[in-house]
Amino acid sequence: MNRYEIHRVDALGTRANSSLLKVGWRSVRNFLKSLLLIRKIRPDFLVCIGSSICIPGFCAARLAGVRRVYIESVARTDSHSSTGSFVKRFGLASRYYVQWPGQADDRGERLYRGTVL
User: Fold this and answer.
1) How far is residue 63 CA from its own chain's centroid?
2) Residues 23, 11: Cα–Cα separation, whole Å
3) At what angle do helices 20-41 and 54-64 cross, to 10 degrees?
4) What is the pLDDT of residues 60-80, one digit of tens each?
5) If we measure between CA atoms, which residue out of 58, 4, 3, 66 comes closest to residue 34?
6) Which of 16-20, 84-88, 111-115 has the highest mean pLDDT?
7) How far apart are CA 95 and CA 71, in angstroms?
8) Measuring CA to CA, which residue among 81, 76, 83 is closest to residue 99?
9) Strand order in the sheet with 45-49
């Protein structure tokens, strides 16, 4: 069986406990760390499940030509998250999956293939 190494980046912080300056600094730091990791390990694709922490990593992966898969959080039952909307609006995801059938669209931009859990 293959072993997978997990690489971590710092949390960006929440609106309640972090200033915009701190979040901006962490985003830049996470982008640079992600870019170095992507160039080092050369992944086939990068997967993120519904968190703002994926944005710097997706930017780095896009710059490096790595496919990006965004999976909307299963907790989002009736609307898309702000992270999901941002990822979609700026084309940061190569594929965008939702975990509820009602969130899929007819254009094939938001795909439903079941749930992760």
Assistant:
1) 14
2) 9
3) 40
4) 999 999 999 988 876 666 777
5) 58
6) 84-88
7) 8
8) 76
9) 45-49, 67-71, 95-98, 111-112
Instruction: Retrieve residue 92's tokens.
Output: 């940061």
The one-letter code for the residue type at 65 is: G
Name the one residue in this structure whose structure tokens are 């749930």: 115
Residue 26 has pLDDT above 90, yes or no: no
Which helix (H) or strand (E) is 70 found in, with range?
strand 67-71
SS3 22: helix
**Lookup: tokens for 94:** 């190569």
d(CA 17, CA 7): 24
Model pTM score: 0.78
**Whole-angstrom distance, CA of residue 71 vs CA of residue 20:** 26
